[in-house]
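Hi V.,

You were right to ask for the full record rather than a summary. Here it is.
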Amino acid sequence: TEEKRTALAEIRNLKTPEASRLALPALRDRAAIVRATAAASGLWLPADEAAQALAPLLNDRDEFVRRGAAYAL
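Predicted structure:
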């Protein structure tokens, strides 16, 4: 889990849509911290793509994930 979170943080730091797309599969990870970090990695997606990918996380069972998705949107 920690390795995934670290990798996703590095993806976020690249600040490109292409890098953000690499994080999309992690939005369905079992670990909330991984999902939240993946959501934050979506900051650099085009608005329509981000909305489609991140909007479902607004209903996540974990508040941290919901907040991360809301921030990224």
